[in-house]
Amino acid sequence: MTPTHATNVRPEGMTGSQAGFGFRHCLTVVAVLLAWLAIVSPVQAEVTPQRAQALLQALDTDDFDAKAEAAQAIAASDAAQKTRWLEALLDGRLGRERRGERFYIITDDSGREWPIIDAITFEDAGTGSRRSVDAFRINNALRTQLQGLIASLSLDEGDEATRLEAAKRLIGEVDAQSVDAVAAKLDDEESPAVRAEIDTALALYRVEQGDASALATLRGNLDTRVRNSLSTIAASDAPIAAEAGETLAGIESKRAWYERGQTLFFGLSAGSVLVLAAIGLAITFGVMGVINMAHGELIMLGAYTTWMIQQLLPGQPGLALLLAIPGGFLVAAAFGILIERSVIRFLKGRPLETLLATFGISLILQQLVRTVFSPLNRRVNSPDWLQGAWQINEALSLTLNRLGVLLFCLVVFAALWALMRYTRLGLEVRAVTQNRAMARSMGVRAARVDMLTFGLGAGVAGLAGVALSQITNVGPNLGQSYIVDSFLVVVFGGVGNLWGTLVAGMSLGVINQVLQPWVGAVLAKVIVLIGVILFIQKRPQGLFAPKGRTS
Amino acid sequence: MNKITSTAALLLSMGIALPAAAQEDTIKVGILHSLSGTMAISESTLKDEMLMLIEEQNEKGGLLGKQLEPVVMDPASDWSLYAEQARDMLTGDDQVDVIFGNWTSASRKAVLPVVEEENGLLFYPVQYEGEESSENIFYTGAAPNQQAIPAVDYLMSQGVERWALLGTDYVYPRTTNKILEAYLKDHGVADDDIMVNYTPFGFSNWQSIVSEVKDFGSQGKKTAVVSTINGDANVPFYTELSNQGISASDIPVVAFSVGEQELSGIDTGPLVGHMAAWNYFMSVDSDANYDFIDNWVEYTGDDMAVTNDPMEAHYIGFNMWLEAVREAGTTDVDAVKNSIIGVTVPNLSGGSSAMMPNHHITKPVMIGEIQDDGQFSVVWETSGNVAGDAWSDYLPESQNLISDWRAPLRCGKLNVDTMTCEDGAGAE
Question: Is the ipTM reported for this complex over the cut 0.90?
Answer without folding.
Answer: no
